[in-house]
Amino acid sequence: MFGKRVVTDKVSPAPVAAAPKAPSENGEDVVSSNSQKSATTPPAKIAQSKKKPVIAEENTKRSEEYYAIKTTIFNALIDTIDLSQLAQLDTTSAAEEIRDIVTEIISIKNVVMSIAEQEGLLQDICDDVLGFGPLEPLLARDDISDIMVNGADAVFIEVNGKVEKTGVRFRDNGQLMNICQRIVSQVGRRVDESSPICDARLMDGSRVNVIAPPLSLDGPTLTIRKFKKDKLTLDDLVKFNSITPEGAKVLGIIGASRCNVLISGGTGSGKTTLLNCMTAYIEPDERVITCEDAAELQLQQPHVVRLETRPPNLEGTGMITMTDLVKNCLRMRPERIIVGEVRGHEAFDLLQAMNTGHDGSMGTIHANSPRESLSRLESMITMGGFGLPSRTIREMIAGSIDVVIQAARLRDGSRKITHVTEVLGMEGEVIITQDIFLYEIKGEDENGNIVGQHNSTGIARPNFWDRARYYGLEGELALALDAAEA
Ligand SMILES: Nc1ncnc2c1ncn2[C@@H]1O[C@H](COP(=O)(O)OP(=O)(O)OP(=O)(O)O)[C@@H](O)[C@H]1O
Ligand SMILES: [Mg+2]
So what's the pLDDT on residue 468? Predict the structure, then answer.
């Protein structure tokens, strides 16, 4: 079918010691021609549903010999087929074509393999040519929350809060770079030496960041935050002991009574997840506008407008920042504004929105404690060059934010809500806060898991009591606070 289909025996089985290498002489991976040609019509991902997830440990067992054989067969395949024509086929036919040819090559070259090994090899090669190569089995797994590739030989994953190294590896940095290119070309971007940093999104919604050499010194570095189809709910967080049932109830009331909420936490601590949980308490008739760098939130309400920032184009123009989005929001008659992550001048606009009738707005911020989150807000506004005295900024913060919820990933990998803290107001120059719930670490069990508990601080009438009463929720609030104290 592809004209070149003559299997020559010029590629002899590589010696075991031969490390996987770039298949073409000019050092460029042959697949790159495929990916570049198909940049406008990127090859669709192989239907993941067809294959069962292969666990990382399985890949760990693959020997040098396996990779050597794979390189040999891959090279013979590249010599045999015309990749540009292959890119024009639909994925299923292309995969069938590749399978036919590879099976033929295996028999011609007399490679000794069990049926299972052969099936694994066929899948690997299909993934390489049509999909995201060695990443495919990891992308197919639902239990992985992050995939971190630090160059061709070091692939880490986070499972159940723990980071572990997998045996997955790429042929070389060239192959890894091609896969990065293929991923970012799907959203119309490119990554190379001249623009080595790129954010993108996979078809399934997973958030991707690529940073390439010369900025990353040991090869292209790819970080994927896997998209969870079934987003966690507050009930799930209770099941995971991230919060008590009473604490979750109080959070629900905070969301429903339109408190302005700041969710604070470190990287990967569960901020976005928590924000998503809190949005479940928004009434269906409220008009909500979300602003994110990469759309991760999944609001279930019918009246939601989703906005996303945009990086500059190749000429360095056309950038739309979070500040632009939040400013524009205000002209869109929002009832609530949700900011995926507050990290710059948009803090000012968000606080203004919170202060001017958009109650129930929410955002996340990188900080290690509620106190720190408030001072980070202050410094973001100071650095925005608005020329406001620090007391005015603090008054603005104290007047806008009602509650700070702190998320943390503990050293055993578990994620907890460590503080639910109210902002009460100002005393002199200082913002006064009051904790409602705190997580206390007591020690560690024999398996290294953290032992601790959530405590109520005994506040019977939080500051948002009147709000809760306004929305008819004070009875529920009193019950939840009483139960928490008991
Ligand atoms: N309470 C929890 N228990 C278990 N897993 C959780 C919990 N909260 C979040 N996760 C998982 O942790 C991962 C990271 O969560 P999330 O994206 O919410 O973190 P984040 O703080 O927003 O990260 P980033 O700083 O990168 O934006 C996700 O896979 C999510 O499903
Ligand atoms: Mg996040």
Answer: 95
